[in-house]
Amino acid sequence: MRDESVCILCSSPGPFRRRFEKDGYGIADCPGCGLVQLMPTPSPETLRALYETEAYFDGEGSGYSEYESQESEYLSTFREDVRRIKEFVPTGKVLEVGCGYGYFLRCAVDAGYDAYGIDLSPAAVKWASERLPNRVFCGLLDEVPEIQDEQYDVIFGSHLIEHITAPGEFLEQAAKLLRPGGLIVMVTPNVESLLSKASGKRWVSYKIPEHVSYYSPGTITELLKRSGFSVSAVDSAYQYYALPFVASRVRELLQPVSRIVPPVERSRLLRERRIRVTSGSMRVIAVRQD
User: Fold this and answer.
1) How deeply is 179 buried, as exposed, middle or buried, from its count of CB atoms within 10 A (0-12, 13-18, 19+)?
2) Residue 144: CATH number of its domain
3) pTM flag (> 0.70)
4) Closest by CA position to 283, among listed 77, 27, 26
């Protein structure tokens, strides 16, 4: 564990204001910059061991236990990210950090980008590499030799930054791989979203211990500014899901009242329907400063 008395964004020594306890950890606010973070902070080694297990993408209760079965929904979601990126960088070389099964990469390649990805999960890298040969590698930013001498136009990370225990160091490494004026695009839970406030402790993004920090538009902007980036836009981020999946999550959130609501989403007419919903996340687009 890291020293729980130091903020992972601004290094403030505290004392931190505890919001609540969940799964053996505290969720707390930094008095210096306002970042909401896990206390104590799990070590990078603990988190890496979690991601490197085969069960992370397909195991019961894991971070992405239905990842493969939701491929079409993820593709629809990532096409929105690609369309947004195109407004800033119409063509060029893209690196995704935390690429999983390569769904975003496929959308980026289909849109004309020269896209590559890295991930800590050997199982995910194997799966993606079979579909995108020579484009996906295993390891951290500073561990993958194939990307070290490249200059990317865009670095993309979806639901990544909230996993990182040293976000400033990560962004400094990312900046070295970006051309001057290059873009970093991150999708991350917004702790100030309406869904977060309405859900309280049951917010879907309180994933313990893998999510070590919970950003707001203000704190993510401060992090990027400290790391040499200028924020161009902060958007609400949406995801596509099958209706029964959304309904199951809503039922969990509304327990025990939801027990009396008929499961109409299981009907033949609705069970195959896919809808666009908010998970309380934001998309942040920032430019590397010279």
Assistant:
1) middle
2) 3.40.50.150
3) yes
4) 77
